[in-house]
Write a structure and sequence with these properties.
- By secondary structure, this protein is mainly α.
- Among the domains are: 136 residues, no CATH class; 46 residues.
- It contains seven helices and two strands, in the order ααααββααα.
- The protein has a two-stranded antiparallel sheet.
- The chain starts with a helix and ends with a helix.
C-alpha cells in the first residue's frame, strides 16, 4: 500500500510539475506576444513620424523650388522688358543717326557747291568781268544770273545732285557770260530753249577760252566729287547690309535662347509633376539629406541679369537633383 501511495504521489508531483512548466511556457509566450505588440506599436509610431517628416520635407522643397522658379521668371520678365526698351532706344538712335547723316550729307553738298565757286585768279577775272558788266544794260541774262546760279548750287542738296549741279553750272555760266557783253554786244546772245546761243564772236577770245576752261575744270571736279560720293554711298550701303545681317543673327540667337528657356521651364514643370505623383519608400537617411539641403549656403547673385539667371537655373537644378535623391 505504501508503495502504491508513494507511486501515486510521485505521479501527482510530476503532473503538477508538468502543469507548472506549461503555465510558465504559456506566461513566457504571452509575455513575448505582449513585447512584440509593443514593439509593433513603436514601429508603427516611428513609421507615421517618418511619413509625416517626409511629407513636411517634400512640401518645403517644393515651396523652395516654386520660389526659385518665380524668381527666375521675374528676372526673365525684367530682362525681356529691358530688351524691348533697348530695342526702342536703338530704333530711336538709328533714326536720329539717319537724320544726322542726311543733314551731314546736305551740308557736304552745300560746301562742295561753294567750293565750285571761282577762287583765286579766276575769282579776280570773274569779279572784273562783273564790274565791267554792272553798268551795262542787260536784256535777258544779267548779273543776277550769277547769284541765282550760285544759290542754285547752294540749294542743290535738296534735289537730285546731278541735275541740280548741271542746272546751277549752266546758270552760273550764263551769269559769267553776261559780263562779257558791252553796250553794243547786247544782241549778240539770244536765249533759245533754255541755252545761250552766240550770234557773232565779237568778244575777247582769251576771256572766252578762260571761261570755257574754267567751266570744263568745274565739270571734271564735279564728276570726281560725284564719283567719290558714289563710292561713299556704296560703302555706307555695305555697312548697312552687314549691320542688318548682324542684327538678324542676334535675333536668331535670342529666339534660340527663348526656345531653350521655354523647354527648360517645361522640363522643370514635368519634374515637379512627377515628384508630386511618385512616392518613394521611406529612407533611413531622410534626416541627413534634409540637413544637407538646409545647410546649403545661398549663392551670391551677380549684378549682371544674364549671369544671375544662369546662377538661379543652376540652383534650381541642384534643388531638383536633391529632391530626386531624397525620393530615391
Amino acid at each position: 500500500m505504501d508503495n502504491m501511495e508513494s507511486a501515486t504521489d510521485d505521479e501527482l508531483i510530476r503532473r503538477n510539475e508538468r502543469l507548472l512548466n506549461l503555465r510558465e511556457l504559456d506566461l513566457e509566450i504571452k509575455q513575448r506576444e505582449l513585447d512584440l505588440a509593443l514593439h509593433l506599436n513603436d514601429l508603427q509610431e516611428r513609421e507615421a513620424a517618418l511619413m509625416k517628416r517626409k511629407t513636411t520635407i517634400s512640401a518645403e522643397l517644393k515651396y523652395e523650388l516654386a520660389l526659385e522658379l518665380a524668381r527666375v521668371e521675374m528676372h526673365e520678365n525684367e530682362i525681356r522688358a529691358r530688351h524691348d526698351a533697348l530695342e526702342v532706344e536703338l530704333r530711336k538712335r538709328e533714326e536720329a543717326l539717319a537724320k544726322r547723316e542726311l543733314n551731314i550729307s546736305e551740308r557736304e553738298w552745300t560746301l562742295r557747291a561753294k567750293e565750285d565757286q571761282p577762287k583765286g585768279e579766276m575769282a579776280k577775272v570773274y569779279g572784273a568781268l562783273n564790274l565791267r558788266s554792272s553798268d551795262r544794260p542787260v536784256d535777258r541774262v544779267t548779273a543776277a544770273g550769277l547769284k541765282s546760279g550760285i544759290s542754285a548750287v547752294v540749294c542743290a542738296s535738296t534735289s537730285t545732285p546731278e541735275n541740280s549741279a548741271s542746272e546751277s553750272r549752266e546758270q552760273a555760266r550764263a551769269g559769267y557770260l553776261s559780263g562779257l557783253r558791252g553796250n553794243d554786244e547786247v544782241d549778240n546772245y539770244v536765249l533759245a530753249d533754255g541755252s545761250l546761243i552766240h550770234k557773232a564772236p565779237q568778244v575777247d577770245s582769251d576771256l572766252t577760252d578762260l571761261a570755257a576752261k574754267a567751266d570744263d575744270l568745274r565739270r571734271h571736279l564735279a564728276a570726281a566729287r560725284l564719283s567719290a560720293d558714289l563710292d561713299r554711298v556704296m560703302k555706307m550701303i555695305d555697312e548697312t547690309v552687314s549691320n542688318v545681317m548682324e542684327l538678324t543673327v542676334k535675333y536668331e540667337q535670342n529666339e534660340f535662347h527663348v526656345e531653350a528657356d521655354r523647354d527648360h521651364e517645361m522640363l522643370l514643370e514635368d519634374s515637379v509633376v512627377h515628384s508630386t505623383v511618385a512616392e518613394a519608400p521611406v529612407s533611413t537617411t531622410v534626416g541627413s539629406s534634409f540637413k544637407e539641403i538646409k545647410a546649403t549656403p545661398e549663392v551670391m547673385l551677380s549684378a549682371d541679369p544674364t549671369i544671375r539667371i544662369l546662377q538661379l537655373e543652376a540652383q534650381a537644378e541642384r534643388l531638383k537633383t536633391k529632391l530626386r535623391n531624397y525620393d530615391r
